[in-house]
# Entry
Amino acid sequence: MGLTVILLIITSQLPGTASAWLWSGLRHFKDVLWSPMSDPLNALSVSLRGGSAPLPAGMDQRTLADLRYVRQLEAELDDARQKVEQYERLAGMAKAGQVNLQGVRFLSARVTAWTGRPGVTALTINKGTRQGVEPGMIVTDGINLVGRVVDAGGATAYVSLITSLTAPLEVRIVPPTMAATRQWPGYVQFDPNRQIFWTSVEIQQPVDVGDLAHLAGDASTTGLSPPTGGTAGGWPPEAWGLIVGRVTRIERDADPLNFKRVIVEPMVNLAYLTRVVVLVPMEATAPAPR
# Structure
């Protein structure tokens, strides 16, 4: 802790450019130093939000130790199950032709911490350039789009969530079936105050509650023009088809005679994920030797 404080004081006294350059490397070193403490604390905070029941009274130390060991095995099994489920969901979408994962390998990573504030959040993961992680790579929770890597050190990386974007996302809203009988192509914008994505759709368009919003390609592939003030974001092909969220309700629009407001919410709470998958292109630079 003392070393961290000293580094912070030093970098705070430097010019802005020098401070940003120096701290971009030091903060990854800081993450490695603090990971033995941040990992269990982050896992504890996530488990507390699940509302686990208190231990029964009257247990002796031996019983508590045995119970702790059982819970440890359960946690390891649950972690392995989450990893397998994420891989299976991605493989299923690729087999169905909903996503293009050719030339991409899956890299499972554990979430060790999150930084920021509600609406502007970045996850810290325990994989970095040594494992082939580079800025710009796509991060998923199985079939759900989580975000992309914005910074990577040797052993850790930072992932910016799609709920932290100011630019709109290009999507296709379709029914939750393999064969899409209808679709609505357009853009959804995130509202940080309500923590939802939204868009205005022509009143006659058949968009229903329960439909899924899949990330679409660049604007050039559909002929659409992004709304004023943003762009499609230039997501790579391996991200196309991943799920941005589900239509949860239809609200009254400002122009109710011609439009309806469609509300899309992520299918998982992105800020409190415990494990994610990084999509690493095969042509990416090979991990540096240890």
The first strand starts at residue 104 and ends at 117. The chain has a mean pLDDT of 77. Residues 162 and 207 are 22 Å apart (CA to CA).
